[in-house]
Amino acid sequence: MTHIEIRNASKTFQRNGRKFAAFKNVSLTVERGEFICLLGPSGRGKSTLLNALAGVESATEGVVTIDGETPKAPSVRYVTIFQNYGLLPWRIVRKNVELGLEALKTPKKTRREIAEKYIELVGLSEVKNEYPSRLSGGMRQRVAIARALAVDPEVLFMDEPFGALDPVVRMKLQDDILKIVKQERKTAILVTHDVEEAAYLADRVVVTTPNPGRIKKIVTPPTPAGRRDRASVDFLLTRDKIFEILRTKSSENVDYVI
Predict the structure, then answer these.
(1) Residue 241: partners with Cβ closer than 8 Å, 6 or more residues away
(2) pLDDT tens-digit profile of 1-35?
């Protein structure tokens, strides 16, 4: 069974007495274990589509399902990592990571063991007893990633999680999240407006159009092994093809494989 299915989905809002479509007639299937990037400038409905998948809001028309079920509310089966971290400042790192486990009523000892496992996975064992205010932006995002993974979700949704970070930290976290997603066998959908980020991370890059958001084209890059080097020919070809698509005015829903 397809893990995630979006079929002829649209989302319409009322604004100043008029209807506004955030995205329209979007169709996409995602297989288990895929890493998908939704790419496009701001205002193209990407975050709204992610919210529909995460159960934060519902599509106005069409079908949005995970394992054949429509997400009706946020769930530990599919968690979202945001750009602003969302950490509780009065909790130390370990207690922040334990937050979702507390909601699941996981026993205290087990909770601590799971939290420390994922804190180690993201390389923060030395600061597990520090408060968020004592951490850098990159470290705070690692805490948010560990907290999301601690509840063992099937799907990771990410809404520009690296957007506020400096380039060196951003690239390091891209490597980390890619390794973790593949190691933990998660399905991942990342919203970004960074072409190089999408070209580097994604198994498929879904390029969107604005007003309302639609799928313009889907780029399937070459094999990951040849693309994980930012100086490689495969990476540069993928990046340049995405830039070319963004520059064109076509709004066809056509897969593009390079």
Answers:
(1) 219, 256, 258
(2) 689 999 999 998 887 778 888 888 999 999 999 99
* Selection from 25, 54, 7, 10 nearest residue 159 by Cα: 54
For the residues of the chain, what is the DSSP string, one character each?
A: --SEEEEEEEEEEEETTEEEEEEEEEEEEE-TT-EEEEE-STTSSHHHHHHHHTTSS--SEEEEEETTB---S-BTTEEEEETT----TTS-HHHHHTHHHHHTT--HHHHHHHHHHHHHHTT-GGGTTS-GGGS-HHHHHHHHHHHHHHT--SEEEEESTTTTS-HHHHHHHHHHHHHHHHHTT-EEEEEES-HHHHHHH-SEEEEEETTTBEEEEEEE-S-HHHHSSTTSHHHHHHHHHHHHHHHS-----EEEE-
Check: CB of residue 157 under 8 Å from CB of residue 4: no
